[in-house]
Amino acid sequence: MSSIAYAEDDGMSVLNKKRTEIEKKRRKQKAKLAKRSGRKKARKEAEEQARLAEKAAKEQAQAVEVVEAPVETVVATEGLNPQDEKEAMEILDDMRKKNKERRYRNS
Question: Are 95 and 84 in contact (CB under 8 A)?
Fold first, then answer.
């Protein structure tokens, strides 16, 4: 009878080891899935931040273009005679009016 009890104890210890191994594998699989999910979330967040940064850069570029226009005008008219400078300024004023109209229509 004692040999049957020992065999039963050995069988239970083997069974417990197998259960432990299976549980470890399940934990590892869950950890892998969680890690993948975390990567996907991080990637999506990074993509969203990139889109927002690109949008902000475009808006800033538009603002910079508007601010830089007068500086370019001064440099462009510096070497002209007074009549040509006057004509250039008139053309520039017309362009500014058109740009303002476009901005208001697009807003």
Answer: no
The pTM of this model reads 0.38
80 and 88 Cβ atoms separated by less than 8 Å: yes
* Placement of tokens 């017309």 in the chain: 94
pLDDT tens, position by position, 24-38? 999 999 998 888 888
Among candidates 64, 97, 31, which has minimal Cα distance to 105? Answer: 97
Using the structure block, give the residue that is written with the tokens 């979330």: 41
Q: Is the dihedral of CA 79, 82, 84, 86 positive or negative?
A: positive
| Residue with token string 């699989």 | 29
Alpha-carbon 48 to chain mean position: 4
